[in-house]
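Before a colleague's protein record goes any further, I have to sign it off. What it holds is a sequence and that sequence's fold in token form. Would you go through it and say whether the fold makes sense for this chain? The record follows directly below this note.
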Amino acid sequence: MTTIQALVIGATQGLTELAPISSLGHGVILPALLGWGEIEKDPSYLPFMVALHLGTATALLLYFHRDWRALLTGFFLPALARKDPELSAARRLFFLLVAATIPAGLIGLLLEKKLRHLFSAPTLAALFLAVNGLVLIAAELLRRRSARRPALALEDLGFFRAFFIGIFQAAALLPGISRSGITMVGGLWSGLGHEASARFSFLLSMPIIGAAGVLEIPKLVRHGSPEAMRLAFLGGTMAFLMAWLTTFLLMRYFRSFEATRALVPFGLYCLLAGSVSLFFLR
């Protein structure tokens, strides 16, 4: 892997991880389209991708640092949370995130080896990317037809609905299915609005990304040379910068276009990108 390849893949990771267009799908498809397929055979490539995820996670942690400070304070200081309504709401949100993390965590542990080979199948990733686009479009169309009640506030989300969103997140273990997109679909179908769904999705990503880093970074250290570590640092830094910018823009986008079919443009992009990629990769 060259420096240019590391920076391009890092930038792609940062731009696509939080947008509902699948970073894993792009991470599998882009090297194949650019003729960089050989880097995917390197045993350090998957841990390198996880290093990029850690860059993204750092950006999320900084952007939502007030939320995470309140979440952790509410969890570790329950006596204080009982006296403070805001901390009490944050404590409840913490447990909602735990409930939503369980499905993807369990399925990931049980099926990790069976799913791993999909990361070297660009054609399959392109197909799933097109499917992701169809799901985003269909979710908005079905939601608009059935929406009769005002959107739920995130604080009013129940534990069953949080677990339901977590089941949706488990589908993102397939490259091409966007984690943020599919969890937003679950949030919308659970009664949340676009902004609340996006916020819940971004907060929910932290445990999954953090767990992946803990599991995979030792493999990067074990299999990677000093040069591989340097490239991982460069790629992770680029992913961090792009992820922070993307989060900033997406939160404002979903807040501004709350009442519209805000996921449809992303769905159209995924459908087009997946279809075009299938054509060139066949």
In short: DSSP finds twelve helices and no strands in the chain. The mean pLDDT is 85.
